[in-house]
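Shift notes (night). Ran Multiple sugar transport system permease protein while the centrifuge was going.
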Amino acid sequence: MSRRAAGVALTYLVLLAGAVLALGPYLLSLLTSLKEPAQLARRATLTWPAPWTGQNYADVLGGQYTLVPALVVTVQVVVVLLVGQLVCSVFAAYAFARLRFPGRSLLFGGYLATMMVPQVVTVVPLYVMFAQAGLRNTFWGIVLPTLFGSPFAVYLLREHFRAVPQDLEDAARLDGCGTLRILRHVVVPLSRPVLATLAVITVVSQWNNFLWPLIITTGPKWQTLTVATANLQSQYNGNWTLVTAATTLAMAPLVVLFLLVNKHVTESISLTGFR
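Came back to this:
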């Protein structure tokens, strides 16, 4: 019993150390954002704010260094990409999972192989194509490369759709349902946890996307939040309280989103973890 208790205590100590390492940077960012620049310069970084101030948040929300336009652009980009990726990925994954057509396996294998290609390899060709099409520094220039799904999303949904019992679809066909009605009324309702997980992954990846918006946009009109925050850091490198306030605000919606859909993410893990 003593060895078992020691093992449990050691396990929790390791988990606690991991939690501190994972959450430490976020706590440090929050504490720094609530300090005045003079206090950050005079005192140690890990000290508590004294006095507490919200002026940094006021500045990045509506003051001289406002990030509200970039936040609006980012929300628009994420919403459009979320809808586009979910719809296109569902259709593509169901086609690869259930429909029979020549070259299905070969086409899916080739599409899946693109996951192995780093993003930086395709940046230059994509930029040349979009620049020649007149889409540089436009909203559609930001969203089109990833609007029609991703290999990871199609692969994840295909594997889940293949696990849906074929008898349910056969019963629906006997009742007169076509392929689209089966997808809408049978397959999609059974896939809500996986779709919620995919939605979280899509929102997080697109919210944090930096390289492509940086390359395809110029000027403040279509700047996303990541690009605007990076510009703020380069312009006001000495004012870390302002920069950390911007980064804390940028990550806050993602934390709220995860707390809202945490249950569905857990369900998707339980559904797919023992296949």
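The chain has 14 helices and no strands. The radius of gyration is 23 Å.
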